[in-house]
Design brief:
Layout lengths: L2 H20 L17 H7 L9 H7 L2 E3 L6 H6 L5 H6 L3 H6 L1 H4 L5 H19 L7 H26 L12 E4 L13 E3 H18 L16 H12 L3 H13 L11 E5 L5 E5 L10 E3 L8 E3 L1 H6 L5 H4 L4 H4 L9 H16 L18 E2 H14 L3 H12 L18 H16 L3 H9 L10 E5 L2 E5 L12 H6 L11
Antiparallel strand pairs: 1-7, 2-3, 4-5, 6-8, 9-10
């Protein structure tokens, strides 16, 4: 039974639910058994959903943050015989990653989020759009968005559950399942090779681009605009080491939208919880920022910021200094006249709660684009491609386009003209990448991609309660196990690293 056949049977319940959620005044009732996905306007409803991927576990491996909701009191958790998922990831425990995590990670919703979009949004549209009632222009737009969206979420799944793409082994190394619209839903999915998966992703993106049907500005930023197929393609081509192609795709995306919002415009003077003057971000949603080609809107509240992450931000970074955290919101609570002592006391309070004296995100008002793609991604890709060709000034110019709108004027110093070597250029790129990608899926994805590049790979260390933990480029920690529910229900799916 293909998806198309299944949809012709089941669409009545699916679209009835979507219609009720999307428009309370929808009262037309078709005859029982009628396919309610028969119009392009019906298919459009499938796209009206919130797209988001949970990234905190990836951020923990990468060294960005710890999930404050799930980690518990860390010193006590470290003493347990069977470690929880957050502690396995925090301590980079290779043995537990191989033996415990594959049988305890039933709560990993990232995989299901990716394949629900593919199976419940993209494939129904691609199966039914041509025969649906409606203008051809509308059909083309729906298909273009579905192709690009399927590519995006297939790519996102591969970044978490497969090894980093290596051209030398891509034709043999397994990746994630490919689920086309022609898939027979009665047959369990199978894994495809890295080469096959990336070929399918690029094919979908080329199909979206060839249709040339997406609007320059989408109806909202939770939908795909004309730049998105090119933006996704730029990321994908970076992953398979096609840097010329990636630079071309990034440039094409920027032709369709190149705004970088100045974060200084979103700062406001306020008072802390305890009456100390502070400057913080005004509550803002990614849906209102023009720099976002595609946005998910999610809070980053109660994430424990690792010291290694704080150190990677440049001095004067708005994201570091003005994001609402316990240090910012709690100022004045102990020693209003001495912010240094005050900060130490706040960190001690965090140590009482979590067992580590770290800063904690504490923003209940703003949301952030943790999954989507921004114009700045394209400039970062152009910068990396230019560095790889030895064009250092060009690369630093791209980075400065971002930095001037992310760093306070008192701290901003241009890189162009001051950075002249490839080593220093890569270091500058990494800091700018961290400033843009921290608190999103993209920091993990990018740092993982670098693990097989000689000029970029590095061994990461973190200090925790007197112990040093190490993450090597070759570590299996960069690969997550598939959710246990997926493997238990489908014997065709195997984890992409050695488990016990």
């Amino acid at each position: 039974m293909t998806i198309k056949t299944f949809l012709n049977i089941a669409a009545i319940s699916v679209v009835s639910t979507l219609s009720l959620q999307s428009c309370e005044s929808f009262t037309d009732i078709d005859q029982k058994g009628t396919n309610l996905l028969s119009k392009t306007s019906d298919l459009e409803l499938l796209l009206n959903r919130r797209y988001s991927l949970e990234y905190t576990d990836m951020g923990t491996v990468n060294g960005d943050m710890i999930d404050g909701f799930e980690c518990g009191y860390i010193p006590s958790e470290l003493e347990k015989v069977t470690k929880s998922t957050p502690i396995i990831l925090l301590t980079l425990d290779e043995q537990a990653h191989a033996s415990v995590l594959p049988v305890t990670n039933s709560n990993d919703g990232y995989y299901s989020s990716c394949y629900q979009v593919i199976g419940r949004v993209c494939n129904p549209i691609l199966s039914l759009a041509d025969e649906a009632e409606g203008p051809q222009e509308h059909k083309n737009r729906l298909k273009a968005e579905a192709y690009a969206m399927r590519a995006f979420f297939e790519y996102a799944a591969a970044q978490k559950y497969a090894r980093v793409y290596n051209p030398a082994t891509a034709d043999a190394e397994m990746c994630v399942p490919i689920v086309p619209e022609s898939w027979d839903i009665q047959i369990p999915t199978t894994q495809s090779t890295q080469k096959e998966v990336y070929a399918q992703i690029l094919s979908d993106l080329d199909n979206a681009i060839s249709l040339d049907a997406l609007p320059e500005v989408a109806i909202n930023r939770m939908r795909f605009c004309a730049a998105m197929p090119y933006a996704v393609k730029a990321h994908v081509l970076m992953s398979i080491h096609d840097y010329d192609g990636a630079a071309l795709a990034a440039s094409e995306a920027l032709k369709r939208g190149d705004v970088i919002n100045d974060y200084a415009d979103y700062l406001v003077d306020d008072m802390s919880t305890y009456g100390c003057p502070i400057t913080k971000f005004v509550p803002v949603t990614p849906l209102n920022l023009e720099e976002n080609y595609f946005a998910s809107s999610a809070q980053i509240n109660y994430n424990i910021i690792m010291p290694s992450s704080d150190k990677m931000f440049e001095d004067g970074s708005y994201m570091k200094d003005n994001l609402i955290t316990t240090l910012l919101s709690g100022r004045g609570s102990y020693f209003p006249g001495d912010l240094v002592s005050d900060s130490l006391e706040i960190l001690k309070r965090n140590e009482t709660n979590y067992g580590v004296p770290y800063n904690v995100t504490s923003d209940l008002e703003s949301t952030h684009n943790q999954t989507g793609i921004k114009t700045t991604h394209m400039y970062l890709i152009l910068a990396e491609c230019a560095i790889n060709k030895g064009r250092i000034d060009e690369a630093m110019g791209y980075l400065d386009k971002i930095r001037v709108k992310r760093i306070a004027p008192a701290h901003y110093r241009p890189l162009l003209g001051n950075v002249t070597t490839k080593t220093d250029a890569i270091a500058a790129l990494k800091k700018t990448v961290h400033g843009e990608y921290c608190y999103s899926i993209w920091n993990f994805i990018t740092c993982k991609r670098w693990t097989i590049l000689d000029d970029y790979k590095e061994t990461r260390t973190r200090e925790l309660l007197g112990k040093t933990y190490t993450l090597t480029p070759e570590s299996d920690m960069w690969v997550f196990p598939f959710p246990v529910t997926v493997i238990s229900q489908n014997p065709n799916i195997k984890n992409n690293y050695t488990t016990k």
